[in-house]
């Protein structure tokens, strides 16, 4: 039986019409009937409040259970800025390198909004040198000082450095343009985020694309297990950045770096950038290989062999892949 059914008739009508605390049609009842009626009304109100509370609690449980557990972590990744991404990566690298090389890691400082602080220092432990940076966190030439108090990013000498001629370079560089060491002005060459990065335990630095809260969003230098360059191209070696072992990054979309002649850009599925692979392994550079017996040799050093190779495109500059006695196929300077 419901609570309403056990009430006197006057109380039932009172509840149905939303009356006051007393039963308006039972005034002539004795005090016992009045007491029973008021008690029943209070019990009904408490029961209604309890049902409402349980209903709200169930709604909260259902709502929370339908929310993915990793939603906060996924949104955190998207909400990071370029400075925050770099700070996280450099902090992880500093921890891996240990105390002996900790001072070699420059962990960037970010503002409350996540931008690079205008003044950065060599490290957080012992900031002996400080300088001004641009929106990518790159040092502005002429701004480095021995103490943070001596750095003035509005200094006229720095302002003159930053007044560079407008570049006509239409190449898109994800990490911004490299800067001339003398003038500090941007040059028509992509900046390498891994330049000067030292990785622990034989790992190799690779630019890792990330999602940022806002632009710019350059790739983050990340230390990973070294990969063989021979795995990046179907055949032959990918084009490397001059003076380094890191491959030159290219893209097939307009505005992205393109490969030089004799190479084609190979972008793996799901990636925005790829590497320059030999366009044709059958291509031969001009000139004639020296005869196998013409290879230079001395009694003390033996044969002076060049870099081992499989075809001309694996040899630097105009050298050809030639066969010579004692060396097999190696890179040699051609005749003509």
From TrEMBL:
<dbReference type="InterPro" id="IPR004094">
    <property type="entry name" value="Antistasin-like"/>
</dbReference>
<keyword id="KW-1015">Disulfide bond</keyword>
<feature type="domain" description="WAP">
    <location>
        <begin position="282"/>
        <end position="335"/>
    </location>
</feature>
<dbReference type="Pfam" id="PF00086">
    <property type="entry name" value="Thyroglobulin_1"/>
</dbReference>
<feature type="domain" description="Thyroglobulin type-1">
    <location>
        <begin position="80"/>
        <end position="153"/>
    </location>
</feature>
<dbReference type="InterPro" id="IPR000716">
    <property type="entry name" value="Thyroglobulin_1"/>
</dbReference>
<dbReference type="InterPro" id="IPR028150">
    <property type="entry name" value="Lustrin_cystein"/>
</dbReference>
<protein>
    <submittedName>
        <fullName>Testican-1</fullName>
    </submittedName>
</protein>
<dbReference type="GO" id="GO:0005604">
    <property type="term" value="C:basement membrane"/>
</dbReference>
<feature type="domain" description="Antistasin-like">
    <location>
        <begin position="164"/>
        <end position="190"/>
    </location>
</feature>
<dbReference type="InterPro" id="IPR036645">
    <property type="entry name" value="Elafin-like_sf"/>
</dbReference>
<dbReference type="GO" id="GO:0005615">
    <property type="term" value="C:extracellular space"/>
</dbReference>
<dbReference type="Pfam" id="PF00095">
    <property type="entry name" value="WAP"/>
</dbReference>
<dbReference type="Pfam" id="PF14625">
    <property type="entry name" value="Lustrin_cystein"/>
</dbReference>
<dbReference type="InterPro" id="IPR008197">
    <property type="entry name" value="WAP_dom"/>
</dbReference>
<dbReference type="InterPro" id="IPR051950">
    <property type="entry name" value="Dev_reg/Prot_inhib"/>
</dbReference>
<keyword id="KW-0964">Secreted</keyword>
<dbReference type="Pfam" id="PF02822">
    <property type="entry name" value="Antistasin"/>
</dbReference>
<dbReference type="GO" id="GO:0004867">
    <property type="term" value="F:serine-type endopeptidase inhibitor activity"/>
</dbReference>
<dbReference type="InterPro" id="IPR036857">
    <property type="entry name" value="Thyroglobulin_1_sf"/>
</dbReference>
<dbReference type="InterPro" id="IPR011061">
    <property type="entry name" value="Hirudin/antistatin"/>
</dbReference>
<dbReference type="GO" id="GO:0007160">
    <property type="term" value="P:cell-matrix adhesion"/>
</dbReference>
<keyword id="KW-0677">Repeat</keyword>
């Amino acid at each position: 039986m419901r609570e309403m059914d056990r009430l006197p008739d006057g109380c039932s009508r009172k509840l149905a019409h939303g009356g006051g605390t007393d039963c308006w049609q039972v005034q002539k009842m004795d005090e016992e009937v009045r007491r029973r009626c008021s008690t029943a009304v209070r019990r009904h109100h408490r029961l209604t409040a309890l049902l409402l509370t349980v209903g709200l609690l169930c709604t909260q449980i259902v709502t929370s259970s339908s929310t993915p557990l990793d939603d906060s972590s996924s949104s955190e990744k998207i909400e990071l800025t370029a400075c925050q991404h770099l700070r996280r990566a450099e902090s992880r690298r500093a921890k891996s390198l240990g105390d002996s090389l900790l001072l070699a890691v420059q962990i960037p400082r970010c503002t409350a909004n996540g931008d690079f602080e205008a003044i950065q220092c060599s490290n957080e432990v012992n900031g002996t040198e400080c300088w001004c940076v641009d929106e990518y966190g790159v040092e502005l030439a002429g701004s480095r000082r021995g103490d943070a108090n001596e750095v003035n990013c509005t200094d006229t000498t720095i302002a003159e450095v930053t007044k560079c001629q407008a570049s006509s370079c239409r190449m898109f560089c994800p990490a911004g343009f490299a800067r001339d060491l003398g003038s500090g002005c941007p040059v028509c060459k992509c900046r390498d985020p891994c330049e000067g990065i030292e990785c622990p335990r034989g790992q190799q630095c690779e630019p890792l694309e990330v999602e940022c809260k806002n632009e710019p969003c350059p790739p983050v230098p990340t230390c990973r297990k070294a990969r063989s360059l021979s795995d990046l191209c179907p055949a032959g070696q990918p084009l490397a950045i001059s003076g380094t072992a890191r491959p030159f990054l290219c893209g097939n979309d307009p505005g992205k770096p393109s490969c030089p002649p004799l190479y084609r850009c190979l972008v793996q599925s799901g990636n925005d950038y790829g590497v320059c692979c030999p366009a044709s392994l059958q291509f031969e550079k001009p000139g004639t290989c020296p005869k196998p017996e013409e290879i230079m040799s001395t009694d003390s050093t033996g044969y002076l062999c060049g870099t081992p190779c499989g075809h001309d495109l694996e040899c630097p500059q105009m050298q050809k892949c030639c066969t010579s006695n004692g060396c097999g196929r190696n890179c040699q300077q051609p005749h003509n």
